[in-house]
């Protein structure tokens, strides 16, 4: 399958700072990227869907001004957690796909562990 | 709205024994169904998927799953578990038409005992 990387794999930051997480599709062009959040012992919760060159679509309850998503190219999407607080600590996972239908397989990155002190 | 239930949080299986992980879904029509495996430090890996046709689908690593419409289930099976199968397993459902996102179950942690 296709390879998706995330950087960094883990990050610790102080409360009030912003953190950027990168998601890259290494060997295919991802027209659609998804950002998930996973709490311990919980499922993956979709945060937003981004299509290359357009604004992201956020799920209900996700603050778009807090979780800024940019999908500027077919191989890179970024998630910026602005003014992070301890409750934002979580495991963030991205996936990349060649389309918006669930028929198009999503390839997942290894995730980024964010800890906000 | 679509939803997925994985009733077992943890399952422990002896190495060499058979395995069945349960998954029930809720969706108004025939859904697209998926099983993923998540190992520490690795991204979710697709084991198998069902879109249509034969209700018994074969996947990678010796896994198979059976779609049962009458029971709204898509249980994952493996005839003989290996220690390397220890991981977390997620069932997911997606809409079979139009724009769709995946809805995941809460996962089942598989422990393999010697």
Any key phrases for this structure?
heterodimer; A: 117 residues; mainly beta; four-stranded antiparallel beta sheet; 11 strands; B: 114 residues; six-stranded mixed beta sheet; 12 strands; 0% helix
Describe the overall structure:
The complex is a heterodimer of chains A (117) and B (114). By secondary structure, chain A is mainly β. Helices cover 0% and strands 51% of the residues of chain A. Chain A has strands at residues 4-7, 10-13, 19-25, 32-38, 44-51, 57-58, 67-73, 76-81, 90-97, 107-108, 112-116. In chain A, strands 2, 4, 5, 6, 9, 10 and 11 form a seven-stranded mixed beta sheet that branches. In chain A, strands 1-3-8-7 form a four-stranded antiparallel beta sheet, with no helix packed on it. The termini of chain A are far apart. With 114 residues, chain B is an all-beta fold. In chain B, 0% of the residues lie in helices and 51% in strands. Chain B is built from no helices and twelve strands. In chain B, the strands form three sheets. In chain B, strands 2, 5, 6, 10, 11 and 12 form a six-stranded mixed beta sheet that branches. A four-stranded antiparallel beta sheet of chain B has the order 3-9-8-7, with no helix packed on it. In chain B, strands 1-4 form a two-stranded antiparallel ribbon. Chain B starts with a strand and ends with a strand. Chain A binds chain B through residues 1, 4, 9, 34, 41-44, 46, 49, 93, 95, 100-103, 105-111, and chain B through 4, 9, 32, 36, 41-46, 49, 51, 90, 94-96, 98-107.
């Amino acid at each position: 399958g296709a390879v998706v990387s995330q950087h960094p794999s883990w990050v610790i930051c102080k409360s009030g700072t912003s953190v950027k997480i990168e998601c890259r599709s290494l060997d295919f062009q991802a027209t659609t990227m998804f950002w998930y959040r996973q709490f311990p012992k919980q499922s993956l919760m979709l945060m937003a869907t981004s299509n290359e060159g357009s604004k992201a679509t956020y799920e209900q309850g996700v603050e778009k001004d807090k979780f800024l998503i940019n999908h500027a190219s077919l191989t890179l999407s970024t998630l910026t957690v602005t003014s992070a607080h301890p409750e934002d600590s979580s495991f963030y996972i991205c996936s990349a796909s060649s389309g918006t239908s669930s028929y198009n397989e999503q390839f997942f990155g290894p995730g980024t562990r964010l800890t906000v002190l | 709205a679509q939803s997925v239930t994985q009733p077992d949080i943890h399952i422990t299986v002896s190495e060499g024994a058979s395995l069945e992980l349960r998954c029930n879904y809720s969706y108004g029509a025939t859904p697209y169904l998926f099983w993923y495996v998540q190992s520490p430090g690795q991204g979710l890996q697709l084991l198998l998927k069902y879109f249509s046709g034969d209700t018994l689908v074969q996947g990678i690593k010796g896994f198979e799953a059976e779609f049962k419409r009458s029971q709204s289930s898509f249980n994952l099976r493996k005839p003989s578990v290996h220690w390397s199968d220890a991981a977390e397993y997620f069932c997911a459902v997606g809409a079979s038409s139009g724009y769709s996102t995946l809805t995941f179950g809460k996962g089942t942690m598989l422990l393999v005992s010697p």
